[in-house]
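User:
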Amino acid sequence: MDLSFLKHDYNILNQKEVRIILTGGGSGGHTFPLIAIIRKLKSLAQEQNINLSLLYIGPEDFTIPYLEKEGIEIKFISAGKIRRYFSFQNFTDIFKTIAGIFQSFWHVYSFMPDAILSKGGYGAFPVSLWGIIFFIPTYIHESDVVPGLTNRIIGKFAKKIFISFKGTEKYFNPNKTILVGNPIREELLSNINANKENTKKVLGLSKRPILLILGGSQGSEHINDVILDALSKLINNLEIIHQTGTNNYDRVIKESDVVFREIIKNEELKKYYHPIAFLEETDTPSLTSLKDILLISDLVVSRAGSGSIFEIAAFKKPSILIPLPWASQDHQKKNAYEYAQTGAAIVIEENNLKPSILSNTILNLINDQETLKKMSLAAQSFAKLDAALKIAQYLLEQSSLS
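Assistant: Predicted structure:
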């Protein structure tokens, strides 16, 4: 007699239930680490026979389509920023925050989770506030060296605080902090040990050194302009993959055509310059695949968001970091310099970013294999590939005990 159905029913009866709310502030720097954690939570829950329910609560922004692909429940709330300078929006945004607090009440109360994980940012404050009021175990993850205002406030009441950089410890109770790094989507790391030269061949690239330009999740107009001005010096020696940002792509295409036609005066060299609107997470090898381009790059020029730094480090790439000068609390500059202390990167601040300085720094590094190797080893030592796993494991273990 087949009694397998009894085993199935027994498993269902003995299946633990865990409910977790995730929240963040409305940028790629918040959303992509959360996606990495969501995927780990799902895989661990399946392995451990846990009935997992996930709910994301946050403002509606350009990152939501990425969260929707994860198949989790999503609730939108109003959210207002607190700017550290005079702006009339500070007054109007107070009402957005108040509205978000009321909206969050119903979402949190009706879902009543075992835990809340906040990535910080203005959109996370209303949700985290109700976590504290309802005595729901609330955890935060801080991506940057210097925590934002929401995480500083919620960190005083949080059960545990996951941090990316060692230097962040001084801003929180050290007994509550756990150094894990910044979560990276596991799928992005799937080819981290693939053959670099074979991948270049598949992508139809030359044997030239590859320079990758990353301007952050939405691109950088200033970096784009400097690269265009420096093309005449760089294009004779390198193959360049340039993430322009979706909104800047058409302009960069038009202006690069002019550069090759009127300044370089050699349109044959255009085959070594590849402007890309946005590098995606894709399984098929292509010039728009972030994991493939990171694999084949010899040097990366990037903004200094925590996500970018940890992805570059994961692929052991030497880098030149250009911190966003108007980032909140100057966090990109502090990220950049803390990372550069390892020897893995060189920092060029925005006010020093001139085409000649950038092109000379790039060419000097590309022609110095010994320095590139040292920078690569430093990046490898800094990388923390299991951040998402550590956070997901901790959340499930603690939630299962409650």
